[in-house]
Amino acid sequence: MSVAIVIPVYNMATHLENLLRSIWNSGLIDTIDELIIFDDGSTDGISEVLGCFTSPKIKLLRPDKNVGRYLARYEGALSVQSESILFLDARVEVMSDFVKGFDKVKHMSIVQGTIDIPADESIYSLYWELSHKRLFNRHYQDKVNGFWLTNDNYEQYTSGTTIFYVKKDIFINACHSFITPPACDDRELIRKIVKNHDIWLTEKLKVNWRPRQNLKNFLGRLLERGPVFVEYHFYDHKTKFRKGVYLGLFVIFSNLVMMLLIPHYFFSLMIFQLFLILLSTVFFAGKTMDFFKLCGLHTLVVLAFGLGVLWGLVKTHPKCRRYFT
User: Fold this and answer.
1) What angle do CA 20, 22, 27 make, to 5 degrees?
2) Is the pTM of this model over 0.85?
3) Residue 182: its pLDDT value, please?
């Protein structure tokens, strides 16, 4: 089975260097046939990074303009000659024993791997790890033994292409089913695939992964994902988080009514709501110290994501969509 690695990258030079070094150190470079780096308009010195890693297997692709992650993956897939593709996010690092696990699953048609977050490295990694374990508790429990992601259970689990192994023809056919690139590219693409092919999710395909490591980028990513989240969860009545979106909109509407009808109570109401948001940190912070570490960040995350959802409702509304396309 011939295998190509495809890595879409945009201004991730430092992370890409760590990823490539881990691919070399783990011996993965010796077991694959191609390594495609799709540089989607980076301005932070990707070429200098690649200069440190020499192999005839490496191929660098550069479009004339930034095309986005979905098309970066698609065009990268079109360029490979191999039968199967291992997609890796630029912010992952391959573990030293990765090849051993990969050898056990690479005969399969589609495999989604798992991530290991070094939660003790930063407050952002800790927050991501604890909050996602709470939101996707079933996913974290079932991934230990592995499970099949199917069309019936798809909305009960999390999915993505952070580490995703798939036969080239299956991936290309799924991409061809979209007229335009989907906004929620990971979820929409894998949902399209899982309608025809069950996906094996296993820890045998595990990598280290880190979220963005400063407040500006961490919160900025949430704002960016707001429209994507709304398009996927607000307009589809079968998704996991639709009720949360509706509840959030009800709270916002109630605040607006309160501000207009009884403005002298509005400030007190906002203070009370901020207190509740801060207090909600207790639902995923397992230790008292974690609560105090994360309560401030959690409050900012909720506010940033709320703004992102509001922006998403405006941007994805049919009457407004034409102004943002």
Assistant:
1) 100
2) yes
3) 77
